[in-house]
Amino acid sequence: MNGQAFTVHAPGRVNLIGDHTDYAGGLALPCAIDLGISISGTHEQGRVELSSDALADTVTFDLDPAVNIALIEPQWGRYVAAVAVEVNAAQGFTASATSTLPTGAGLSSSAALEIAVALSFGFSGSPMELALLGQRAELRAVGVPCGLLDQLSIVFGRAENAMVIDFADNAIEYVAFPNDLDIVILHSGQERQLADSEYAERRASCELAVKQIGPLAQASLTDVATLEGDLQRRARHVATECERVRNAATALRNNDPITVGDLMTQSHASLRDDFNVSTSVLDELVERLNTLSGVYGARLTGAGFGGCVVALCERGAINEPAALTGRGWIVRPSDGARQRAI
Ligand code: GLA
């Protein structure tokens, strides 16, 4: 309704373990976090005006299903316009966004923006439709053929729970996150670079591997050994990562943080050596974290190529994460995205 005020919120997510598995039909163990993007404003017929405290310049455009998204400036407006097309929006809004989520850090700021914008348009479909819409908007906006990890975590997050997602059928199982553990995130200071083209290349390799040996989540190391060169290493990462996710979920349920932490550190080594998406800065951070008392394990989180590392810690082990690299956070598993008419 024209003039109707609204406020929406979409959290970011941190992936505890299981990266570069979603688009290969594998498994991951993420949670939504208490850093995110909120948008407040009023509905308005036919146009969008959105400003942000985290991103430069105001996005303004008239709603038009035939809009040329590549021409929208500032660039972050392309996410907004892509969502408008996906929602088939007739009603727009004048609004402002506030964000506590760092951009380009592997904590899903673009997916959070897409989901928050979809809710701002008054999206009223099911949560699964909302997640799928966000994924299509990402492809439409910037051409990144992402999986569903970010969108499912953001939409289906639950306070004090991590979630095991099986991307074979997008089934979600919640796992209570122990009260006596902290999730610590440290920013490496490296904004993600080259991620888009390399991301698509990794995804294509995984798809090729699936064609040759079937679903990687079920592949044995003997199956993987029939592949050659880089393809073998990419597939080995996905196959072993899925097994690590299963084991980490069991260990979390059994309140065994030592095993979860070890699996996280093994995951980092696999992303570094087999999937080649780490950087020396991320590697050093993981090593450094693992020398600190009360840290069970650490790994890069998200697509890699820069961004953040995540560590599983005893509660209070690292009191001031920002003191370690300049930017850091202790986060708690949080509820998923929500909208509220006011
Ligand atoms: C990005 C993508 C996700 C996922 C991760 C890696 O965050 O958007 O779909 O592939 O990288 O796990």
From TrEMBL:
Xref: Gene3D superfamilies: 3.30.230.10, GHMP kinase, C-terminal domain
PANTHER family recorded: GALACTOKINASE-RELATED, MEVALONATE KINASE/GALACTOKINASE
Q: Which GO annotations describe the biological process of this protein?
A: galactose metabolic process
Q: What organism is recorded for this protein?
A: freshwater metagenome
Query: What lineage is this protein's organism placed in?
Result: unclassified sequences, metagenomes, ecological metagenomes
- Descriptive protein name: Unannotated protein
Q: Which GO terms describe its molecular function?
A: ATP binding; galactokinase activity; metal ion binding
The record's section on Pfam families has: GalKase_gal_bdg, GHMP_kinases_C, GHMP_kinases_N
Q: Which residues form the GHMP kinase N-terminal domain?
A: 83-157
Q: Where is the Galactokinase N-terminal domain?
A: 4-39
Which NCBIfam families does the entry link to? gal_kin (TIGR00131)
Keyword Endoplasmic reticulum (UniProt)? no
Give the transmembrane region(s): none
Q: Which first-to-last residue range defines the signal peptide?
A: none
Q: Which UniProt keywords apply?
A: ATP-binding, Carbohydrate metabolism, Kinase, Magnesium, Metal-binding, Nucleotide-binding, Transferase
Q: Which SUPFAM superfamilies match?
A: GHMP Kinase, C-terminal domain, Ribosomal protein S5 domain 2-like
An example Gene Ontology CC term for this record: cytosol
This protein's record includes keyword Kinase: yes
Family according to the record: Belongs to the GHMP kinase family. GalK subfamily.
Question: What InterPro entries does the record tag this protein with?
Answer: Galactokinase, Galactokinase_CS, GalKase_N, GHMP_kinase_C_dom, GHMP_kinase_C_sf, GHMP_kinase_N_dom, GHMP_knse_ATP-bd_CS, Mevalonate/galactokinase
Q: Which intervals hold domain GHMP kinase C-terminal?
A: 249-315
